[in-house]
Amino acid sequence: MQELTPLDGALLIDKPAGPTSHDVVDAIRRRFRIKKVGHCGTLDPNATGLLIIVLGRGTKLSERLMSDDKVYEGTAKLGETTSSYDADGDLTASLPVPPFTLDQLNESAAEFVGDTLQTPPMVSAIKKDGVPLYKLARKGIEVTREPRLIHVYSFRFSHYAEPLAQFRIACTKGTYVRSLVHDLGQKLGCGAHLTALRRASSGKFDVADARPLEEVLQLSESDLKSLVIPFLKLTAAG
C-alpha cells in the first residue's frame, strides 16, 4: 500500500458567501497543486460556514464524512416567497405578516421535527437525466422530483424582529433548509424565504475549528500540512 503523506486527509474551511463549493475545491487544487481534492456536502454559493475539504487519499472518505448529521444557523424573512426559496430567486408572492411571537414561530417550527419526506427544490444541484435541476429551472422547465426521507432533530428560532427570524436547525444530510423555511412560511400563511445560512457543524467537526478560505490560500505548503486532519485520524473517528 502506498505510504500516506501529510496531505492525505481533510481540511476544515470556513466558506465565504459567493463561491460555489466546487470553486473552493478548485482554488485549493490549483494553489497547492494537489491532484485529488473534493468536498463533503455542497453549500449554496451564498451560504457560509463549514466545508470539509478532502485531500489525496482522504477523498476515499468523502461519502462517509458527507453522511454525517449537520447543524445550520440561518435567517428567514417572513412575508415574501421566492422561486428558489432563498434571496437569489425571483419574488413570487408578497403578503402581510401577522403579529407573530417567538413562541408562535417555535410552535410551528416544532411541527417539522422528526422524519419527513422532502421534495428537493427545482433550483438545486440534483440531476435529472444528467442535467442539474437548476439549469432546467433557468429555462422555465419544471420536472417531477422524488421526495427524500430526511430527519430534523431540532428547529428553533432564537430571535424575531419582523420580518426577520433567526433560527438554528439540526438535521440529516441532504436536507434543504431553504425548503423547510419555504414550507414553514406556507404553514404560517404569509410565506417566507431564506436570506442567510451558515453551516455550524458536520458530524464531530465544528466551524469554530475551520479557517477562512482566503487565509488558507495564503499559506505555504508546510503551513497547510499542519492544518490537515490526517487520514488515519479520520478513519479512527467513528
Can you put this structure into words, describing what you see?
The protein has 238 residues and is α+β, with helices and mostly antiparallel strands. The longest helix is centred in the first third of the chain and has 12 residues, at 21-32. 26% of the residues lie in helices and 34% in strands. The chain is globular. The chain is built from 8 helices and 15 strands. Strands 1, 2, 3, 4, 7, 10, 11, 12, 13, 14 and 15 form an 11-stranded mixed β-sheet that branches. A two-stranded antiparallel ribbon has the order 5-6. Strands 8-9 form a two-stranded antiparallel sheet.
Structure keywords:
single chain; alpha+beta; Pseudouridine synthase; 2 domains; two-stranded antiparallel sheet; 8 helices; 15 strands
How far apart lie the N and C ends? 23 Å
Main beta sheet, described? 11 strands, mixed
Mean pLDDT across the residues is 92
State the domain count.
2
Number of strands: 15
Rough outline: globular
The secondary structure category is alpha+beta
Under CATH, the topology of the largest domain is which?
Pseudouridine synthase
Work out the radius of gyration: 19 Å
The number of distinct helices, counting runs of at least 4 residues, comes to: 8
Q: Looking at this structure, what is the CATH superfamily of the largest domain?
A: Pseudouridine synthase
Tell me the series of helices and strands, N- to C-terminal.
Answer: EHEEHEEEHEEEHEEHEEEHHEH
Helical fraction equals 25-40%
CATH class of the largest domain: Alpha Beta
CATH-level-2 architecture of the largest domain = 2-Layer Sandwich
Low-confidence stretches: none
Strand content: 25-35%
